[in-house]
Specification:
The complex is a heterodimer of chains A (413) and B (163). Chain A has 413 residues and is mainly alpha-helical. Chain A is built from 22 helices and three strands. In chain A, strands 1-3-2 form a three-stranded antiparallel β-sheet. In chain A, strand 2 and strand 3 form a beta hairpin. In chain A, helix 6 crosses helix 18 and helix 12 runs antiparallel to helix 13. The longest helix of chain A is centred in the C-terminal third of the chain and has 31 residues. Chain A starts with a helix and ends with a helix. Chain B is built from four helices and two strands. A two-stranded parallel sheet of chain B has the order 1-2. Chain B is flat. The chains are: A mainly alpha (413), B mainly alpha (163).
Chain lengths: 413, 163
Amino acid sequence: MDIFNKFIESIGGIVQSSGFVSNDWRNYIMIGIACVLIYLAIKKQFEPLLLLPIAFGMLLVNLFPAIMAQPETTLQLVKDYMAQHGGAVGNYSIINLNGAAYYQIPKVGGLLYYLYQGVKLGIYPPLIFLGIGAMTDFGPLISNPKSFLLGAAAQLGIFTTFIGAIFLGFTAKESGAIGIIGGADGPTAIFVTSKLAPHLLGPIAVAAYSYMALVPIIQPPIMKALTTKKERSIVMEQLRPVSKLEKILFPIIVTIIVSLILPDACPLIGMLMLGNLMRESGVVNRISNTAQNELMNIITIFLGTTVGATATGTVFLSMQTIGIIILGLLAFCVGTAGGVLFGKIMCWASHGKVNPLIGSAGVSAVPMAARVSQKVGQEENPANFLLMHAMGPNVAGVIGSAVAAGVLISILG
Amino acid sequence: MFCKTGKGAAGRRVNRKDVCFQWKTVSVQVMIREMGNVAMSFEQKVQLAIVIILTGMVIVFFMLIFLTYLIKGYGAVIGKLLQKGAPKKPREKPAEITLPAAPKAVPAVEAGVSGEVVAAISAAVYIMYGVSAAKITSIRRAPQNQTRSAWSMAGLLDNTRPF
């Protein structure tokens, strides 16, 4: 009978500790949303390399919230402990409070809490940039440095979205974190959000990566609305060849200049250029390959899963999230429009030598935005190959969004 | 609401309930620190928005314009150095041009692929890899994805491959 009672108690204890008892309705809604995102990542292939770990992290934290629990220390009276454990002495440090002795019993944090420290401490995004730099060819930008201006113009989306967020009731720091979605750069968005508004990391990351996957749908209508058929048909001159020495000097010079003027952008720009220097130097192919492949894959897994694990029901299921989604769309649209309009200015200033469509590639969704410019240009003129011309503003946008991130952190941080 | 400074006007001290600053001395960082979670008035939001958009765009443009001129400058310098470094060859009578022998190995091409397409693919491979590093052994059509065009698939794969 005693055994049976203890058996019933054990079963009761397991039931009490199960997710069915401890989770509430918000967790179940988030589980549903996570499943939808998994479907979008796998079936529709919406940025799957990041959306899948983000969605699964969201699923895990809403099934078992303690997976993100912080480590803690509880105090228990020594005599109570010994009474519970049949007189056995615990192997914990003792602290005396008000004449009574307490054990300091540590409780380990959840798995994803420890992996999340890479996000919280701003480690993962710069490492992702290291891999991106190792994969990026800045040749089109070096051969046509005016592309930098298009990369700058496309960052207009970041700052105008800041204005929208401020007037919607977000705080200054939250508005800065929401605005950076307009940079169309996932690691930058995560880096800035983890510094300015870490409690919004989940919705901002989901919004940023979802919109990046929708670039081919969002951009073309804006590009066509702001340009004429004649402008879209402009064929640009072939780019000049770029020497090896120029490609080696580029990352060194950019790092020095940007880091001196804007030190807060140094982690992102520095790692981006380190990766690029490893690629262009040609003398460290082994570590360049590691940065592009194994390191990127490892960091992507950790970053995606832990960012997704910040999307709990209380944070995600709020009017704030709807505001973030609307503002994120605004950021992308204004960024695209800013780049195209500046492209029109450059077209006019160069007497028709610059095709304004490449301005839309200033959002730093590499290389999807450049491909969109190519596709829209080819619709007007099938013999028009804008891809390499658009890669210049595209990679300039990566640098531009990192600089904008540095500005926001410097002012609002 | 902001206090005006001037003759006879006294600036009021900052406190959380009554956020009035001396216009000339406040910085944006101080304002944000003082605000915290306190709701901002309309004028404060306008001021902050203007400051952020002006500062942000000016710094981003300044930085990138500076980099534009710097890269143009060092590109020109390197171009001149490389030209100077190349040895000057004396003018000679042009030697008789002998065409290289045609390559013996030809790529196996799937039926239905025209010579122009083969030429275009060969040129693209040459640009990417150089003539010494790559030799085309066969050209065949990629399996067609039913739901996406070839361009769309290529873009998607390239976009996701880095990650």
